[in-house]
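call fold target=Lipopolysaccharide export system ATP-binding protein LptB
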Amino acid sequence: MIVVENLVKTFGGFRAVDGASLRIEQGSITGLIGPNGAGKTTLFNVIAGVLQPTSGRVTMLGEDITGLPPHELFHKGLLRTFQIAHEFSSMTVRENLMMVPAGQSGETLWNAWFGRKRIADEERALRAKADEVIEFLTIEHLKDERAGNLSGGQKKLLELGRTMMVDAKIVFLDEVGAGVNRTLLNTIGDAIIRLNKERNYTFVVIEHDMDFIGRLCDPVICMAEGRVLAEGTLAEIKANEQVIEAYLGTGLKNKDKVAAS
């Protein structure tokens, strides 16, 4: 679905992404792991149009999307979430969800004056869609809560819900488990699995929690120093000597420590 070829992103003389190549298969939940500074988030940002690549190519379903801005990729069904959730803090959970779809009739002054029935009809449909998403995520008790009052994990659920308000094809999740308690992380994991199996969402997940990666992801891609180091099942990745060196720098003698992590 997504093919990345020889992608490079430099900042001055520093190569944050250094000739990375990888393939994301449609319908998969792919894990992206690696030590801090490996280039994972920069890779996400280049694929999602937040950053322009220095060189290389990205295609989606055979179409060259290299360097397209986020709003164009949004309309093609490529979405990403961020390690720090971005919510409209003064709006309720339901209102946050209703804000997502683009091109709403109420956004133009003409329709605000002369298209009130159309706006009302759209709002009813959006409200129904938002309530469906809220029920799917089992957060009915939060639907009228201001988003700014949510916990970190609840905000991550809300971000996942925002991807459900449009026809997402592939979603890039950046450290969805950061600052999230285990119970909520399991809820988020359940939602990702259901979206993958029931609605055919494709996911790419950056995460440091290996239990979470092991539960959701196959394959797993490991990056180090801006390059793709290895790809396979989590068990294969954990047994890979290059991966162990990248994480620990001490080779096979610490393999047991990685396997237990």
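return ok
The chain has two domains: 2-86+166-259, 88-149. The longest strand covers residues 14-24.
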